Amino acid sequence: MIENGKISLLQFGIAVYMFALGSTALLAPSIIVSIAKQDGWISVIFCMLVIVAFVSLWSRLSKRYPGQSMIQYGERILGTWPGKLVGLIYIWYFLYLSSLVLRNLGDFITTSVLSQTPIQFVHIMFMIPVLYGAYLGLEVIARTGEVLFPWILVIFSVTILLLLKNIDPGQVLPILPDGLLMPLKGVYPLLGFPISELVVFLLVIPFVKGQNKIKKYFNLYFLLAAATGACIVFISISVLGVDVTARSTFSVFDMAKEINVGNFFERVEVLVGGIWMMTIFVKLSICFYAANLATAQLFNLRSYRVTLLPFGMFVLALSILGYKNTAESAWFITTAYPIYSLFHGLVIPALLLMIGKLRRLKG
């Protein structure tokens, strides 16, 4: 078997939570607020209904074909060559997503933390542990997320407590001045980033213990991530205001700069940046691992590890060539990317489920 590891339901749920936050919490607040203004946090709440629908679709596919990934049952449903074409589409998507996540991290580090450091160096240094994690397998990636998860909760909770005196609820008023139209528009970029991206877990689900409870844990931790995102957007608006949040590339990092306790406890934004480095590491590791696992399953390789190094070099190159700057990234996320990502996260899985039912195929 290409992958022999097994992970628990808790590890699966934590991986979903950290993947969903990932680079989303770093970039999404400014993008959402630029569209929905002070109602940006309501846009994230609306996404919860969408999340339930997506998880229901993915869970039905996994339940119908137990023990198989979408690469494997894709060939069975569509036939050999159409199925292999779909597999190639997903391999490219996972590699491209890996490059985007890596670039998000590189932009954050070189813009806000180490401004004199070449972005290529940051990418290489971060990609080395990702390669090693993918080499060790799914169990190690899941355990890493399990270890980092409590630290994320502690740092996030402490940050919120320290920002309480800076929160101005008047910044989020008036609520829904233009009705539901603007919050609904704010949902659009979130459909692709990160909701549709979690289709990657269709390759992870076959290795989770307790298959009958996967949907419950998927929904629970995905919705928990959405609630965390709504809280982040609400506090960003309350502390920085709508205009500053919309203009700031990394509004969460700028928000943490406002922490000042007694003129001696300040400049703690690096700790907040550490949260996103942890979540981005888990997200990137899962994306990169999935690309290699999908390749091994598609071409019947003995091990997924044979493609780690070439794919790693490809992701490094693509992360530099993907887009020119953060402004171009924000434009891409709010225009074309949701459509591109929905094709992988919604359209293809829905077609696989529908064709499988028509052909009366089951696992």
List the SSEs and their pairings.
Layout: H1 9-21, H2 24-36, H3 40-64, H4 70-78, H5 80-113, H6 119-136, H7 138-163, H8 181-195, H9 214-240, H10 242-247, H11 251-256, E1 260-261, E2 265-266, H12 269-298, H13 308-321, H14 326-334, H15 337-358
Antiparallel strand pairs: 1-2
Helix pairs in contact: 1-7, 1-9, 1-12, 2-8, 2-9, 3-8, 3-9, 3-15, 4-5, 4-15, 5-6, 5-12, 5-13, 6-12, 6-13, 7-12, 8-15
Explain this structure to me?
The protein is an all-alpha fold. It has helices at 9-21, 24-36, 40-64, 70-78, 80-113, 119-136, 138-163, 181-195, 214-240, 242-247, 251-256, 269-298, 308-321, 326-334, 337-358, and strands at residues 260-261, 265-266. A hairpin with a 3-residue loop joins strand 1 and strand 2 (265-266). Helix 5 (80-113) packs across helix 13 (308-321), helix 6 (119-136) runs antiparallel to helix 13 and helix 8 (181-195) packs across helix 15 (337-358). The longest helix is centred in the first third of the chain and has 34 residues, at 80-113. The mean pLDDT is 89.
In brief:
The chain has 363 residues and is mainly α.
Task: Please tag this protein with its features.
single chain, 363 residues, mainly alpha, Amino acid/polyamine transporter I, two-stranded antiparallel sheet, 15 helices, 2 strands, globular
The parts where pLDDT drops under 50 for at least 5 residues are: none
Round the Cα radius of gyration to an integer and report it. Answer: 20 Å
Derived from helix and strand composition plus strand pairing, the structural class reads: mainly alpha
Q: Under the CATH scheme, which architecture would be assigned? A: Up-down Bundle
Helix content: over 70%
Superfamily (CATH H level) name: Amino acid/polyamine transporter I
Number of helices: 15
CATH fold-level label:
Amino acid/polyamine transporter I
Report the average pLDDT across residues: 89
Number of strands: 2
**What's the shape?**
globular
CATH class: Mainly Alpha
Query: If strands are numbered along the chain, what order do they take across the biggest sheet?
Result: 1-2
| Main pleated sheet | 2 strands, antiparallel
